[in-house]
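REQUEST FORM: STRUCTURE PREDICTION
Request ID: SP-0412
Submitted by: Lab K.M.
Chain count: 1
Length (residues): 322
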Amino acid sequence: MKPTVSAIIPTYNRADLLGRALDSVIAQDHRPLEAVVIDDGSTDHTPRVIEAYRHKLREQRVNFIFHRQQNGRAPKARNVGMKMATGSLLAFLDSDDLWLPQFCSTLVRLLDKYPSAGLALSGIHVIDGQDRIWKTREMGIRGRGEGLLHRPFERILRHMPMQTSGVMVRRSVIDDIGDFDLDLPVVEDWDLWYRIAKTYDFAYTLKCLACNRCHPDNLPKYDMVALTSSVRLNTKHLPDVTDPETKQILTQRIERQCTLLQEELLREGKTGNGEAHLLNELNPRTPRFALGSMISEGPDWVGRSYAWMIRALGELKRTTAV
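STATUS: Completed
RESULT:
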């Protein structure tokens, strides 16, 4: 008997895109299948979309579970969804993303083929607001079209091959490793993949079977929440890195993130914002950080001007490099 796949779908004010995500679940060539939608306190017309899809999902033999909660961010919503799901396999579909029809069947087959794999992943297309593919994410995996990565913690630390909507995990692995970390509101998915990769193998296919949407409402990568989450993530896992080259890469990544965090604090005219301890503990020795630390002791307008100048130069550099 085929295993039930539970599609965990957190959503927040994505009513115009949620229907497309649910349509991609319906289009899967795998059954049994269920959609677990967690409305994380939406204030738009998400309830109308939910009502419109209740019958449609069940008519297409997709079990439907729905829960509405106060806004608590995606990690909490995914954890609630996993608790409510009935499947032995859990897949995570963001409400602005899509699956191609063979996503579930392919990853189920891979997990059956590779019993040591704690999760399976696929390649990812990047799509625009009209579902048009405009690029493919680089997985950093060379060789056959599919295979097994043996306990790839340090490998994926150097280059993350996956995106949340392209992953399927055994429920037994979540029971063993634990839920998404609620102290990491932005990079909680990377943290879970790191934790799983320390104990389990990863099965993969290079085929792009999931689509990650790029649009103006994507979460920012360099605001205060994102930067502090990234610093916490990387310092959390740094002690488990044994390869010297990988440790150096991660240390440099932490230093760069701390520098960006300092600049963000200066840009917002804040001296600590409750996150200064991250900088004090790590104390990265970069010129930008040292200058930023010195300037932060002066008037707020000086710090904001410095941070604006650094950010503007960074934007200019990225623009000219394209």
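NOTES: Strands lie at 5-11, 33-39, 62-68, 89-92, 98-99, 117-127, 133-136, 146-149, 167-170, 201-213.
Reviewed by: T.R.
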